[in-house]
Structure formats: C-alpha cells, structure tokens
Please model this.
Amino acid sequence: MTRRGMSTRDTNGQWLPIQIAPDDCDLELGRPHKTGIVPWSFPARRRSGVWFNVWANEPVLISPSHWRIWRSGR
Model:
C-alpha cells in the first residue's frame, strides 16, 4: 500500500506511526502520554516536511508521533 493510496477507511480510527503519514490530507496528530495517545485539537497537514495547523495556516513547532485521518466530529 502506498502512502498516497490511503483512504479514511485504511486507518479505521486507529493511531498510526508518523513515519507513514500521507502529505495530501487533513490529519489528526497525537503525542504519547501515560494514558495513551493524546490528540491535538486541530487538523494538520504536512507541506514540504513541515506540519501546519490547517485552521490557522501556521507551522506547528511540536513534533507528532502518531496520526489518523481527521474527522470533524472528534
């Protein structure tokens, strides 16, 4: 499976390693915590190797460790 070929059903709501995150869609990013993966509160998109907050169109300076497809209902 290629990274560009992933769709919303491929993650099935599960957290995946950031190393395989696609560049062409809005993602929910997360970081590990003692209680599990803690999600960020905004969608993000990677452009030229830099993560951006989609809503603010600003770069994110915190490095994520996991991702899943962004769903507005979360």
Remarks:
- The radius of gyration is 12 Å.
